[in-house]
Amino acid sequence: LGQLLGSVTRHFLLMTATPHNGKEEDFQLFMSLLDGDRFYGKFREGAHKVDITDMMRRMVKEELLRFDGKPLFPERCAYTVNYTLSDAEVLLYDQVTDYVRNEMNRADRLDGKRKGTVGFALTQLQRRLASSPQAIYTSLSRRRKKLESRLEELQLKARADVLRENLGEYVVKRQLDLPEDLDDAQDELSAEEYESVSDQVVDQATAAETIPELQAEILILQDLENAAAAVVQSRSDRKWEEFSRLLQDRPEMRTADGRRRKLIVFTEHRDTLNYLMLRIRDTLGSEQAVVTIHGGVNRDDRRKVQEAFRNDPGVLVLVATDAAGEGVNLQNANLMVNYDLPWNPNRMEQRFGRIHRIGQREVCHLWNLVAAQTREGEVFKTLLEKLAVEHKALGGRVFNVLGEAFENISLKDLLIDAIRYGEMPETRARMEQVIDQALDTSHLKDLMARNALVENHMSLDDLYAIREEMDKAQARKLQPYFISAFFRAAFEAVGGVMHSRELGRYEVRHVPADVIERDRVIGHTRTPVLKKYERICFDREHRTLYGKPTADLVHPGHPLMAAVTDLVLSSHRSLLKRGAVLLDPNDDGTEPHVLFMLDHIVRETTASVGATPRDASRRLQFVEMTADGSAIPAPFARHLDLVPLSSAQVAQVADVLEADWVTHQVETRALAYAVEHLVPEHIQEIAGRRERQADKQLAAVRERLVKEIQYWSDRAIKLDMDVRAGKQPRLQPDNARRRAEELSARLKQRTAELLAMRHVASGIPNVIGGALIIPAGLLAQRSGVAHFTVDAAARAYVERVAMQAVFDAEHALGHRTKDVSAAKCGWDITAYIDQPQGLASERHIEVKGRAKGQDTITVTSNEIRYGLNQKDKFVLAVVVVDGDQADSVSYVATPFTQEPDWADVSRNMDLALLLSRGLTPKEFHRVA
């Protein structure tokens, strides 16, 4: 599949947590899916060293940093909680362990798959013994009943020769594709399937080969069941008591104000899960406080449980089996308890990873419960103590390689040996030696170095460059609130109706038939447009809301958005080319401009004759033309700050529409400017990136294929010598020569392709839209507004004083600033706050100056949308100006909470209310 996809796709991304298993040959075979030439042929030690820095990114959680230098992931701490069994529990443990050991010894006589099945069943029984008295009692009872039923069936059989075969049978649902070795089932089956198979096998698989042997085993099970029942009835459960103390007494379980934090408890077995659910509910005094997830919970119900745990403040504890350890994000909790420890060390990291995820802000705590006096408990105690030492030595990174640390012997085998032979001194010594070797500091460092594969170190200059590119991309990105404004207007235009529901969420009860039909025609995605949507939203933060339907996130690639957009364009695309007359409400000047929107494509060149060149990059570019014929690059999405004119206003500027500079050659001059300035910048950016990629790939391909050509050429010569010496080699010399010739042709073809990749061709810029921009000052002048010029000058003066006041405040705090007001990017000042480590954080400040005595501040709809899109980065600076100086400077965080209606042009805000919410710049910086 990988080879097929790689041969037909333009972009091919492989994602894996374990790209390297310690075998370079396997790794290079894996990488050949990405580039068959670069990793061609069989790996030969010493001959094939590869540089993969341009093909792979692999990072370690603990080494990832934010741009401000702070760790992306918080610290994680693991603790071992040892407890001592009661006398009754010790007696039960010894009795069940003796039974398991004896049955394992008998299973050794069996052959084939049955031996592994019986061993798996007994291992599971031992794990349930360690889990809880309830789990072992229920398992023993079920097993005894199943074997008694089996005995009755066999006693009715007339043919003695089928006895052994029937005893070896165990009923497992046939629709499951079981692995040959059931010990591998946990890795190969889903958590739900594994739990089901485990229960069935434990209840039925037996080493008995005769009816007397089966009868004897049933008698033993009856005694064990009675002993387990006595422990359950006595309510003597030291493991629960230790967990209960942990739950009630540990300070980490509560916040600073005394509220209980959310906790996840992992167990291996459903019987223990049900037992814990009841006891924790009783301890907390609330039935709703505890929810559960196990293999029997279907996907929809599991999602509901997760949502309740995330969002319902009354749900405090999630008890789960490993069905919740796969693909579930629960970073709203930072506390976890392993009530049962998994025998696969990879599961430890998977469980911890449910809470230790991107977005987690708190230190993560994990408690592992261990009965150190038991045989398997002794192994875990030794393992966890060594793990704690290496955790400190390696800065917490040990969790990332824990699953690979036991390369020569699995942890499971170590635990089984401890159960069967734990009383032998040599077994204990071997156990300690294996754990010491597996978790040796140098061994772990070797694993980390092997897994790192790529040394990713960035200088501050590199980081600044990446940060700058990310900021540019963010500024050009179609932001949620602009997407929302467009879609609401466009959907209404095609006959649709949206009903506002919860904040930022809408219901669409009926999608117009034209939209559905348009989706069928364009067919951009496999997901069709639905007839109705229970909820849609435009910001991913509004997708889920506790107790409410999950919303469809509408974005440019969503089928509903694509169909509506295509329908609008089919009706109005010609209007875009004809142009519009728009008003700039923020421009108090009197000089109109013409804005052009251009489409520019940079195409690949190709080494294949007749092949159609593909687009390497496609970009919208903007140019503004002035009345004197000069051109200036326009800010990206300049049109967002413009509003339509009424027909009466258009009539007032009719002469401008007919002006010679507007009607003659203005488009030609705009194109000439784009060709001279914008197109070369676009080409240089794309060509530079492709040249670097092509040069690195070509060097790597040449190195690999030249070595392979040399190898097969030398091989052909040696085979010729063997033939002349009378030998009959399995590989004929001509075949080796043919292989070398094929590789030479392959190298020639790939070289031509990569050299062609270095070159790109520019398409001709195409004007796809335009607008005549009328400044508010010109319209006011022609409307005869009295004193507009004086008012405009006064407003401009107040704004200058306000801007300077904010600059002074930021500089006093030691921040660097940049005036971006002319760029029309949605705010006026970018402030850079230096951090002790990493890059400076940014603050985007929109400045609003008002003369003393005024009551309101006017903000445009687009300013509100910019603020909503920028979220925490955005600050509204309100400056009250008295005469020629600032009377006060107030910073207001999150000044906007509600999106404007798509038809709204502006909104007036109460100045006094804003000032009451504001802080001085110094106070704001302290709490931000």
List unreliable stretches of 5+ residues. 158-162, 170-177
Radius of gyration: 36 Å
What's the domain count?
7
- Overall form: globular
Helical amount among residues, as a percent range?
Answer: 40-55%
Number of strands: 24
Task: Characterize the structure shown.
- About 1% of the residues have low confidence.
- The chain has seven domains: 58 residues, no CATH class; 154 residues, P-loop containing nucleotide triphosphate hydrolases (Rossmann fold, 3-Layer(aba) Sandwich); 148 residues, no CATH class; 79 residues, no CATH class; 100 residues, no CATH class; 188 residues, no CATH class; 141 residues, 3-Layer(aba) Sandwich (Trna Endonuclease, Chain: A, domain 1), CATH 3.40.1350.
- The protein is globular, with a radius of gyration of 36 Å.
- It is built from 32 helices and 24 strands.
- It has 928 residues and is an alpha/beta fold.
- α3 packs antiparallel against α9, α5 runs antiparallel to α9 and α20 crosses α22.
- β7 and β8 form a beta hairpin.
- The longest helix is centred in the C-terminal third of the chain and has 59 residues.
Topology:
Layout: H1 2-8, H2 24-31, E1 76-82, H3 87-107, H4 112-131, H5 133-155, H6 163-167, H7 185-188, H8 191-204, H9 211-234, H10 238-249, E2 263-266, H11 270-284, E3 290-293, H12 299-311, E4 317-320, E5 335-338, H13 345-352, E6 364-370, H14 375-393, H15 402-405, H16 411-421, H17 425-438, H18 441-452, H19 460-476, H20 480-493, E7 499-500, E8 505-508, H21 513-522, E9 533-537, E10 552-553, H22 559-578, E11 580-584, E12 593-604, E13 615-625, E14 631-633, E15 643-644, H23 647-652, H24 654-657, H25 660-663, H26 666-724, H27 733-757, E16 760-762, E17 766-775, H28 776-783, H29 788-812, E18 816-819, E19 829-833, E20 841-851, E21 856-860, H30 861-870, E22 874-882, E23 885-893, E24 906-910, H31 911-917, H32 921-927
Parallel strand pairs: 1-6, 2-4, 2-5, 3-4, 5-6, 9-10, 11-17, 20-22
Antiparallel strand pairs: 7-8, 8-9, 11-15, 12-13, 12-16, 12-17, 13-14, 18-19, 19-20, 21-24, 22-23
Helix pairs in contact: 3-4, 3-9, 4-5, 4-8, 5-8, 5-9, 5-11, 14-17, 20-22, 21-22, 26-27
